[in-house]
Known about the structure:
Elements: E1 7-14, H1 17-29, E2 35-48, E3 51-65, H2 69-79, E4 88-91, H3 97-106
Antiparallel strand pairs: 1-3, 1-4, 2-3
Amino acid sequence: xxxxxxxxxxxxxxxxxxxxxxxxxxxxxxxxxxxxxxxxxxxxxxxxxxxxxxxxxxxxxxxxxxxxxxxxxxxxxxxxxxxxxxxxxxxxxxxxxxxxxxxxxxxx
Length: 108
């Protein structure tokens, strides 16, 4: 397997289900992601512009391949409602051959 075809799981939060769906649809339609899971009910605690914040968000788990990460990150930056969207890629330690083949096909 080439390095470019290694599976990544990208974390990205969205402010609400409508924004999450818009992001997921754009990523899938653009073949930047094979699959996006949206997990509602997340509570995020963070500091923004010097203030402690608490927000309800939707966590997106985006499955893509390493070779599409830069384009995926740029697309999220351009289409996300946040000034600084979360874009954190984690390498998948082990992936079934059939799922990886499907993911590569969906992002090619």
